[in-house]
Amino acid sequence: MKVQGFTFSTVEAAIKKPGRNDFALIFSNVPAVSAAVFTTSTVKAAPVLVSQEHIANGRAQALIVNSGNANACTGESGMQVARETTRLVAHELGIDSTAVQICSTGVIGVQMPMERIRTAIPALVTGLASGTLEDVAHAIMTTDTFPKMVTRSGSIDGIQYTIAGVAKGAGMIMPNMATMLSFIITDAAVEPLFLQEAFKNAVDQSFNVITVDGDMSTNDTCVIMANGMAENRIITKDTPAGSAFESLLNETLLSLAKQIVKDGEGATKFVEIRVRGAKNSADAKRTAMAIANSSLVKTAFFGQDANWGRIFAAVGYSGAEVDQSRLSLSFDDVCMAKNGIFAGGDAEVRGTEVLKQKEFTVSVDLGLGSGTASVYTSDLTHEYISINADYRS
After folding, report:
1. CA nearest 68: which of 153, 11, 3, 130?
2. C-alpha gyration radius of the chain
3. Residue 362 lies in a domain
């Protein structure tokens, strides 16, 4: 489905090694109302620092991204590369360099091959008419096994608009805004402050509730560009059109977030950790994250071992308020423990069958209040270790 006013291009810059397109450009024909959320890590890659500066005015028109090199922990040289890249792209496009967002993903601590980037930029701009958003999704992959994309459409006053997005990520995934990148584009006209608020809320309900391995990256970035070329009435907060837009935006980001978990490095399981009955929502999320990040829990998922005790242990050290005598746990609809007590051998047999599925839900009830949260995670496998043992080779 076409998003009006956006064009795309990818080329091979051989940033890490030759043989694939690893350099991509997204361009809006007009300046777009924009917002971004970045890693909260205090160790930030050069492109994150530059993009944070550029997005401060709430506008962007182009996004340049490479895979194969994170340009992180590269000192002043890395900053110079990021700034020069945005200047060169802006010059070729005839726009201001502050209108360019820049992202990188790949190996940390390796200097960027600026000469290859400098050589590739003219071809990247020239190719804008022929590329697709799917090409971009392929170009940003590192250890990903499939490109991650989603499209949604809505309407206001009979005028249709489209929201589309791509993402990459499979390892270093526990964004807290993970070599996680995501780019969202829409041709809807959206009021700037509302877009910023809606986008942050959507990130909190999607990318901030997933974890593959509990590791946050130096490069996590999520950007949205709304160019208004659908020519709809401007969408604002606290209106039916605003609510509909928020719903579509939430769907878009949650779909991409779930795709990242399903592509978790070496993963064989997709698991929703659903917590209810917490004293408050913060305690619910704290509990869900403790379970989702537990190596013992995740290896039990891989081994299809209905070891509910590991989950209770994670709940206990989560930092949430817990009363063991009120704690209950289910795998899908199989009750494994009630009020802190094991439900018995039959439950374990049935629970093991649930864990043999590729997708299932772990439900925990703390029995203390109305707080709820859901977190999405994967299992921890031999393959995850193999991938990360030789990632740089």
Report:
1. 11
2. 22
3. yes
Assess contact for 161 and 186: CB atoms under 8 A.
yes
Same domain as 186, residue 61: yes
pLDDT in tens, 67-100: 999 999 999 999 999 999 999 999 999 999 999 9
Rounded-to-integer distance, Cα 242 and Cα 246, Å: 6
β-strand pairing of 334-338 with 210-211: unpaired
Are 287 and 366 spatial neighbours (Cβ–Cβ below 8 Å)?
yes
CA 302 distance to own-chain centroid: 23
Please check whether residues 251 and 287 belong to one and the same domain: no
Q: Name residue 362's beta-bridge partners.
A: 273, 331
Residue 278 structural domain: 270-389
Q: Is 370 exposed, middle or buried (0-12, 13-18, 19+ CB in 10 A)?
A: exposed
CA distance 262 to 212: 9
Domain-ending residue, one of 222, 257, 292:
257
**Full-model pTM:** 0.90
Nearest alpha-carbon partner for 239 in 191, 282, 177: 191
Other C-beta atoms closer than 10 Å to the C-beta of 54 total 20
Active-site choice (7, 179, 221, 377)? 179
Q: By the 8 A CB rule, do 287 and 318 touch? A: yes
179 part of the active site: yes
Q: Give pLDDT tens digits for 302-353.
A: 999 999 999 999 999 999 999 999 999 999 999 999 999 999 999 999 999 9
Tokens representing 223 are: 């950007």
Write down the H helix ranges in 216-272: 240-262
Q: Looking at the 3D structure of the chain, how many domains does it have?
A: 2
